[in-house]
Amino acid sequence: YSFCTLLDTPTLRGLLTRNAAEMRKHRASSWVAIVLGVMCIATAGVNFFVRRRGPPAGVSIVERKVWDESAVMVNIEASWCVGAGVESLECLSGCRNEFLLYGEGLGHVEVSPPYKVVKQNHSMATVRNTKHRKPCRDLTDDEKYYKTHHREGFEPVKIKLTPLPGATESEASYCIAHLGDWGNATKPASRIAAALARTATAPTNRLWAVISAGDNFYTRGVKSVDDPQFLNTFERQYGVGALRFVPWYPVLGNHDVKQRGSGKAQVAYSNKSWRWDMPGAWYFKEQTLPNGVVVCMGFIDTNNEKGLERKQLKELSGGYHEGCAVRILTGHNPVYSGGAVHGATTGKSTWKAKTARLQAILIPFIKTHHIHMYLSGDDHSLQILNDPPSGASYYVSGASGGTYRFHPARDINNTVWHSTPRQFGWMRHCINATHVTTYVHGAQEVLYTYIREF
Predict the structure, then answer these.
(1) Beta bridge partners of residue 384, listed in sequence order
(2) Cβ–Cβ contacts within 10 Å for residue 54, how many?
(3) pTM score, two decimals?
């Protein structure tokens, strides 16, 4: 079929439509052209029906939003297939001569020839085709990052799994990554993306979502859904390894609304990339984790203070019902901070006043709806603060590498911990049936651990 597409079509048409005299004169080449033409038509027809037939039984090409504990995921270039809770599955391979298999407690992995497991640990295996290499066809950037799948040239591989025994669902923890002010392709941001990808394949504390606390794209947001920043800053930088299977829940920061239409473009991008799950400038999410914990999450636009008070909080209030075990609220601006810019007592005058106004708007809502955790960014530092009167803990994660400008933090009455100046990092909140454990990560190491019971 590939050879047929390379034929010179005008030449072939000319040979097929020559007059009788020319046909007699070039009889041999004419017959060759006719035979090749028939072969091409037949091959194209077979290829069409094979493509329509779909993947083999047991294979689902998916857009996976949450990893189940038993899910097995195979990433092949721009294709993914999943078998959840099964001992064996078939996958499509051939674009690359090796691929990665992800799963919790993989145990013993067997693959059919000519494939071979060349490297494996508790959560990831590298499988290689030892017979031959099939080069990937050239893919455009759009195809690599937005195309669901392509099956041309793939050959099947059968995978048999013997899972390792692990923790029971009630004991297991599921983690939310929390990072803000990350929206640039800098070296620190790349290091944080690599560290985040490593936690996505951890044997325990499975990463099931990423909360982006705003300033997603420096310095003036994006122009449209086709803005190259989506590809360069988000898809490429934070689309590595197992992060390809983890959804993001973003809010808008002040840099995200500096040009007209940027906020709407970020909302609209949810229709282009399933990982970017942002149905509006403010919205609500409820997740029942595999360990049975119900997590209720509200996301607000703190750029719009009038709308926040009059509309957003009223619409979100109904989501926090009695069945919510963990209640989270996320906005870009902090409510409490000891930062040098946004702290209500330590910050600069303009931003200090905004923080005080947000306290007046949000703290009554947090008390009324018994919010356990308020997540934010904006101050370029890492902080954990408690406010016993409101009953909530406040987490500032705004040093995720989008800018080299830091806002050093200092202790205030509410401070539990804060980072040192010029410390990049992010947070990971791991939820089980009784408490949330927060790990504050640097690029390479855990800086601090905090447990919040609920």
Answers:
(1) 395, 417
(2) 11
(3) 0.69
